[in-house]
Design goal:
8 helices; seven-stranded parallel β-sheet; single chain; alpha/beta
């Protein structure tokens, strides 16, 4: 699929989402990004896309609320007249000790990291089929894609990201041949703001390419999965070889 003249809905318009939006805008793709609280970051993403000559907009949405999720594809159609690409990037990544886990923690992770992609995909698919083609790109995690729950205290997160792989495969089968569905499983892309120098060194040491990837590497992978016409139901690890250790 050529992104030019198409419209992409991206759940999350900051950091990595901004790079993805800018990459697609550079290819002539209209952009609709969501935000929950970081309005300023989302608006910055919109301005960056508009500078490249495409239409762009940001919309506030609670991606754990079914009503908001089901309304987003319709909003894309209302504002842009179409929807061709859905990028399910939103994620809740929070460390929770085992003794503090409860139903609320489980539901929060599954709702944000998995259910949102499920409901958005179901509501976006009819709009894509109306155009004759579409792309859905989900976000998992290099650990889930490798079958390695390596870090403790992330149980609900790991389950949700593992479920994202199953959702990707199932949707790819259900929505073929018009809509291609794939997943990206990031590894060390951007260091957290509170990362210590020692932790930074450890991450680089455990990554064969010896560095953080940077948001642009995710944007490249997203564009590849949009432009391909014969890959569906796949998960691509963008982790600098981290899974090899």
């Amino acid at each position: 699929m050529d992104p030019k003249g198409k419209v992409a809905l991206i759940t999350g318009g900051a950091r990595i989402g901004k790079s993805v939006a800018e990459r697609l805008a550079g290819k002539g793709c209209g952009i609709l990004v969501t935000y929950r609280a970081s309005r300023a970051a989302a608006e910055e993403t919109v301005l960056s896309a508009e500078r490249q000559g495409v239409r762009a907009a940001a919309i506030q949405a609670d991606l754990t609320a079914e009503e908001d999720l089901l309304a987003l594809p319709r909003e894309a159609e209302r504002r842009f007249g179409r929807l061709d690409i859905l990028i399910n990037m939103v994620s809740l990544y929070k460390k929770i000790p085992l003794e503090q886990l409860d139903l609320a923690a489980w539901q929060a992770n599954l709702s944000a990291d998995l259910q949102s992609a499920y409901l958005l995909s179901l509501s976006a698919a009819p709009l894509m089929r109306r155009q004759g083609a579409g792309r859905i790109i989900n976000f998992s995690d290099w650990l889930a894609a490798s079958g390695r729950p390596r870090y403790k205290e992330y149980l609900p997160y790991y389950v949700a990201k593992s479920g994202m792989l199953g959702l990707t495969e199932g949707l790819a089968l259900e929505l073929a041949p018009e809509i291609l569905v794939n997943a990206i499983a990031p590894g060390p892309i951007l260091p957290p703001p509170d990362l210590t120098e020692e932790e930074d060194r450890e991450v680089k040491k455990a990554t064969p390419l010896r560095r953080w990837g940077g948001a642009e590497e995710i944007a490249k992978a997203v564009l590849f999965l949009i432009e391909t016409d014969f890959i569906t139901g796949e998960s691509i690890r963008v982790d600098g070889g981290r899974h090899l250790y």
